[in-house]
Design a protein that fits this description.
The complex is a heterodimer of chains A (456) and B (157).
Chain A (H helix, E strand, L loop, with lengths): L17 E5 L25 H14 L3 E5 L9 H10 L3 E6 L6 H10 L1 E7 L4 H8 L4 H15 L2 E8 L7 H11 L3 E6 L5 H4 L10 H15 L5 E4 L10 H5 L19 E4 L5 E2 L6 H4 L9 H7 L1 H4 L15 H5 L3 H4 L4 H8 L9 H9 L2 E9 L10 E8 L20 H6 L3 H25 L8
Chain B lengths: L22 H15 L8 H19 L87 H5 L1
The chains are: A alpha/beta (456), B mainly alpha (157).
Chain lengths: 456, 157
């Protein structure tokens, strides 16, 4: 294989237009939160020729980066050929992997074909990761993969899902990833799609974001000066006191903030059988724009409602789908219900997103907290979802006997950090209360002087 | 159906701008975000928030900086009294060999002053010449009333 000449930028660069491609649904792990219920390959996955044609169409449509995912992308025999085709078209080729089965030779071959950014999925420390990923030893293999990637000189980071098992271990994992040489860490909320819908006890409750967001903010600020960038995924946010800093990967002077779902605007998702969606995470049944076998990519992108619904942003129609809290929110016009995937898999329709820090803070100032409770299970297909009820309680209402409830006291800190400051959990809890007090002040100020900040 | 976007002519299809104008929404969201996270920003009490920020920074520094070792406890002074009198210098001679300590011992306690010093006087000094018309059988009394000048006739009587 020839050496690609395209030099991709490092992790901190902004993506312009981005495709996430499930090249196969075949997987060697059995994750209890897997949204696509990966395991066996789809019966009608694209063949090599079809895959090459799709690569060409993506380049013509303006895609600048393609991330190969699965299942496990490297279980497809022609995965390196596809990766090389992507780089030959001048696009960045990156990859997300569970890291279960990449040795030094494979890592070198990945570098040779031009894969220049790898994200290894790690969901907590060893015991938690192995439990969630359904395979003992998977944590050790993931970190061995990082060693191989570092040895051959490929930029690599990690991605981690936030759930009630992984959340208390984030500081330990943060340090472990830095020690392993990772450069970036993408964070996503576990949401009830696929297997995660069947294991809903692991889902964070919305009010628990009040504690988790300050924790992640602290880690991001700690990582940035070390060149380790904490990156919130598209279903993590929004507009809370840390949104700007987190969108800057830990840079406290960042101006940017969440500007709404980009599905179909700068992002597309491709399933292994050629199904095109605006975002790889969106449920297939509701958001499939059709198959690349039946229409060209440009045709699907321009003519199918499932790929163009976000083009209404900024118009009066752009917020027609909102309901519940999101419909009344100050940020509704720009945010448009935040991550459509997250909202849809909770309530079977988009437009009301319970995983929002701003929302949790506003609720807390009104002495409320929200909880999600499963009402209808998913039917067992890839990218399917159940239906949840949203329960609103008094903020200080007693909690059920819930051993998984996430609190500041449960956070596990590296010993070295505790030696420097033994009060980390207490200080974090104080920050939680400060955030609520600041929001309360803002709300009361607006009540007294409504002209200070007109509603949007 | 085909939905238009705001991309320039001949630009690639992706990324594409939404059909509507988002600039106003972005500006308003930015202002809103600033205000929610610093509700004092539009008030005269803005300094309160600034003070909080400074306090937080100082607290943070206090946590991060190494704690200095505690100051040593003050040395207790010897339990001695002031000395009055003459302290004789030791009869110092050049010494070769072992230095003998002088015979003089330090003095503790109160040294009384010599007898020749004046003593404080307590009591009343009696006048030598008694005043006319004033009963001097008792010590000095306070006088209330007016002093009347007497005629010579009155004195004669």
């Amino acid at each position: 294989m020839s050496q690609p000449t395209y030099q991709a930028p490092a992790f901190t660069s902004r993506r312009k237009s981005y495709a996430v491609w499930e090249t196969t649904l075949k997987c060697n792990l059995a994750c209890s939160h897997c949204g696509s219920r990966a395991g066996d390959a789809r019966v009608n996955e694209l063949n090599t020729a079809e895959a090459f044609d799709l690569v060409k169409q993506m380049a013509e449509a303006g895609i600048t980066e393609v991330t190969m995912i699965g299942g496990e992308a490297f279980l497809r025999p022609d995965w390196l050929d596809i990766a090389e085709a992507i780089t030959r078209q001048g696009m960045i080729c990156s990859m997300t992997t569970g890291g279960y089965g990449i040795n030094r030779t494979t890592a070198q071959r990945m570098k040779d074909v031009g894969i220049n950014q790898i994200s290894v999925s790690v969901d907590g420390m060893q015991r938690t990761h192995d439990r969630l990923r359904g395979k003992i030893g998977s944590w050790r293999y993931a970190f061995e993969t990082m060693e191989h990637l570092q040895a051959v000189g490929i930029y690599f980071g990690a991605n981690t899902q936030v759930n009630r098992y992984s959340a208390p271990e984030f500081p330990l994992l943060f340090q472990a990833l830095i020690d392993a040489g990772a450069k970036a860490w993408q964070i996503q909320m576990t949401v009830p799609m696929g297997n995660a819908a069947d294991n809903s006890e692991l889902l964070m409750q919305p009010y628990e974001l009040l504690t988790f967001h300050p924790l992640l903010a602290q880690l991001a600020k700690r990582g940035y000066p070390q060149g380790f960038y904490v990156q919130p995924g598209n279903n993590y946010g929004y507009y809370g006191p840390y949104d700007r800093m987190l969108r800057g990967f830990g840079r406290e002077t960042e101006f940017g903030f969440w500007r709404g779902c980009q599905a179909g605007l700068s992002t597309i998702g491709i399933e292994a059988d050629g199904t095109i969606k605006g975002c790889p995470s969106l449920p297939t049944a509701a958001y499939s724009g059709g198959s690349i076998r039946d229409a060209s990519l440009v045709e699907i992108l321009t003519e199918r409602d499932e790929l163009t619904f976000n083009l209404k942003a900024g118009t009066s129609e752009g917020t027609d789908h909102l309901w519940g809290f999101c419909k009344t929110c100050d940020f509704a016009a720009l945010c448009r219900g935040a991550c459509n995937w997250t909202a849809h898999v909770f309530f079977d329709r988009r437009g009301n997103n319970p995983y929002c820090h701003h929302r949790a803070l506003v609720n807390a100032t009104q002495n409320l907290r929200e909880e999600v409770i499963i009402r209808r299970k998913a039917n067992g297909l890839p990218f399917d979802n159940g239906v949840f009820d949203l329960s609103t309680l008094a903020f200080d209402a007693p909690f059920n006997d819930d051993p998984l409830r996430f609190t500041a006291e449960k956070i596990q800190w590296p010993k070295q950090w505790l030696a420097e400051n033994p009060h980390l959990s207490a200080e974090l809890q104080a920050e939680v209360e400060r955030n609520i007090a600041t929001m309360r002040t803002a709300q009361s100020t607006r009540a007294l002087t409504p002209t200070i900040m007109p509603a949007m | 159906m085909t939905t238009v976007n705001n991309n320039r002519p001949n630009a690639p299809l992706l990324p594409r701008q939404a059909h509507g104008d988002q600039n106003t929404n972005i500006r308003q969201a930015s202002r809103q975000l600033n205000w929610l996270n610093n509700p004092f920003v539009n008030q005269k009490t803005g300094y309160i928030d600034l003070a909080n920020v400074i306090r937080q920074i100082l607290n943070q520094l206090g946590v991060q900086l190494p704690t200095p070792s505690p100051a040593p406890s003050p040395i207790k002074p010897p339990d001695v009294q002031p000395v009055y009198g003459v302290v004789l210098p030791p009869d110092v001679q050049p010494v070769y060999g072992v230095i003998q300590p002088p015979d003089i011992q330090p003095v503790y306690g109160v040294v009384l002053p010599p007898d020749s010093m004046a003593q404080p006087v307590y009591g009343v000094i009696q006048p030598d010449i008694p005043l006319v018309s004033v009963d001097d059988s008792t010590p000095i009394q306070a006088i209330y009333g007016a002093i009347v000048r007497l005629d010579s006739n009155d004195l004669a009587q």
